[in-house]
């Protein structure tokens, strides 16, 4: 058994699920095959939905604070296994150790949040216009939640959805990315341990289905799946959204971003450089919130570009499992090819490229490590308006703040955005109704690294969904409005009178 397989077994995964299956898994670190995961047939996925629905009808009757206990136990399992699961994230998704561990910490944080939430699923009491009446709203469990996730946050996104969904009284079916099924198997094994300790949860409350996008499509098309929460590319969301809408199901779409930082002439440049480099090259540019565009005041554009080039030259690129590495590999060859095509287009569109080439191919002939690219663009051309899921940072300059804001908003995506400025008026305007049109708008902090306490998601082609903190839980429940008459009269609406 290889060390990866031993790691899986130590996390409680049954070897039968990853030894002789049809889904071949490769580590992006060296391209080596690490497992053969068993995939579920379409009949098995449909049967899983039926079982989930049966589990839902029981779980919805369990008091919410008791449901919270399950998530508390899940948090404990995650704490106890943070290092092992984080390492597996690094091996399967290519993240550096700190990011792999950080992803598991996010899971722990959302569990803590959801445990508290289990006692706070509040509805309103509303003043009635009729005498002797009271109105209120009640939040009820929604049904089966299908969670479809992307490769780049292979486990955290599941937890953002599942911790809330389970506390809200729903049953969950998870379809992870076909590129990262091992972290899903391990995470689900930890949830199963928590379920065992919990004792009396219905069987099949949470299930994992492994497969290609067709597996996800079965969840998308099944009317028993009340909510499809899908994270991935805008292409995927364009397919999923209309199908779920056609059957009047509910969707949370968390899709691509094209996140910009505006750097004003008043910015603290030391802070800005740190924020930009972390946002642009962290996870090798493979975060939905990665910084992809820089909009810099012309008076400091040259200086900032030079400082970034200097910082980029010293970036430690390499095996993400080794201490000191800050930039790991791209997920696969297709990601590398897409990056190269984008850089070629940028040159055709008059961009000046620094970096971007493949490195370490002698040591890792089957893996794809790149020098992150900086591209100075004369304008926001077609290639800049597109999300390329790789470490490419386009730099553009501006003269007037209004123009910077217009450039920031003038892309189809609307996930994350930031401004570095010490001008209070610019900062406030940036966050105002006429400012950034993104779901996340930050001041003096970069575009990535959202905390779980806030609602996470974005507008336009990012899909409009919200997950994680704040009142995102409402997306996982249905709202009933109740009117109670405690008088001995029955005043009818609109003054209508029937009978005596
Ligand atoms: P992807 O769209 O290729 O796949 C995502 C998931 O959707 C996978 O599980 C895949 O099997 C499934 N899928 C694809 N087509 C489907 C279909 N027609 N029906 C049902 N399921 C389908 O994305 P990826 O390459 O894994 O991830 C990268 C993308 O995800 C980037 O665009 C990134 O910005 C985005 N992302 C967004 C967020 C966010 O919260 N907004 C978070 C992480 C990643």
Description:
- The protein has a 7-stranded mixed sheet, sandwiched between helices. Strands 7-6-5-8-9 form a 5-stranded parallel sheet, sandwiched between helices. A 3-stranded antiparallel sheet has the order 3-4-23, with no helix packed on it.
- With 500 residues, it is of the alpha/beta class.
- 38% of the residues lie in helices and 20% in strands.
- The mean pLDDT is 97.
- It has helices at residues 3-10, 42-59, 64-80, 82-93, 97-117, 156-167, 181-198, 213-221, 234-246, 269-281, 298-313, 333-348, 401-409, 424-431, and strands spanning 23-26, 33-37, 125-126, 133-141, 144-148, 171-175, 206-208, 225-231, 250-254, 259-263, 291-297, 352-354, 358-359, 369-370, 373-376, 392-398, 413-414, 416-420, 440-443, 455-456, 459-460, 467-468, 477-485.
- Bound molecules: nicotinamide-adenine-dinucleotide (NAD).
- Residues 21-479 form the Aldehyde dehydrogenase domain.
- Belongs to the aldehyde dehydrogenase family.
- Homotetramer.
- One of its GO terms (molecular function) is aldehyde dehydrogenase (NAD+) activity.
Bound ligand species: nicotinamide-adenine-dinucleotide
The pLDDT mean sits at 97
Biggest sheet features: 7 strands, mixed
Amino-to-carboxy terminus distance: 83 Å
Question: Compute the gyration radius: what is it?
Answer: 24 Å
